[in-house]
Write a structure and sequence with these properties.
5 helices; alpha/beta; TIM Barrel; 205 residues; binds iron/sulfur cluster; 9 strands
């Protein structure tokens, strides 16, 4: 799915896969209550992707707000898919003007709006391009499996924190090997931190 698939949206709506309230499971905001809005569509097809983002329902911004204001939390995390395919500044300002702080989790292929309050880039594919279009972000988070090469920090967007996130698979032994591999990477390159997806460990969404 790419920009063309969402081209039919009105400027007052978004194609939403799911909205849920949970804890941020990884990275620099780990453990913080957050309202997750997963938008439909992605411009990449990563072979390790475990996210269901294809289907979505077109919702007006007001309809989304009606749902999110039921939760006692002022942080929205936009995720996907690739949420920036739909998140124009006008749409972001709607939620900012309603008092929300907004974090985004992006694959690094799109320029990020300055309206976001917290930016996470997980560059997939062209790392240099990710740095070129977003030289400064809050957090770089790289999903890693055993044997993957960790890029040089200098090749990535400048960030306050750099995380490696072991990829969880359906095979516990494989997952354990990925975790062990990431631990070794951090021990040998301590500019990185380990981020384990706690929502998977404690069985929450
Ligand atoms: S960029 Fe993210 S959501 Fe899109 S295919 Fe890759 S892992 Fe899945």
């Amino acid at each position: 799915m790419n920009r063309n698939v969402i081209a039919g949206l009105t400027c007052n709506s978004l194609k939403v896969h799911e909205i849920f309230y949970s804890l941020q499971g990884e990275g620099g905001r780990q453990g913080e209550a957050s309202i997750f809005i997963r938008l439909a569509g992605c411009n990449l097809r990563c072979d390790f992707c475990d996210t269901d983002f294809e289907d979505g329902t077109e919702m007006t911004l007001e309809a989304i707000h009606t749902i999110v204001r039921q939760f006692p939390c002022q942080w929205i995390v936009w995720t996907g898919g690739e949420p920036t395919l739909q998140l124009t500044d006008d749409r972001l300002w709607f939620f900012k003007n309603n008092g929300y702080k907004q974090a985004v989790e992006s694959n690094g292929t799109q320029k990020l709006s300055p309206v976001f309050d917290y930016t996470v880039v997980s560059p997939k594919g062209n790392v240099e391009y990710a740095k070129q279009i977003n030289p400064q972000v809050d957090e770089v988070r790289l999903p890693l499996k055993k044997g993957d090469t960790l890029p040089a920090i200098d090749s990535l967007p400048k960030a306050k924190k750099y995380f490696v996130s072991p990829i969880f698979t359906d095979h516990p032994q494989e997952t354990k090997e990925n975790i062990n591999y990431c631990v070794k990477q951090v021990l040998s390159r301590p500019q990185w931190k380990l981020s384990v997806q706690i929502h998977k460990l404690i069985g929450i969404e």
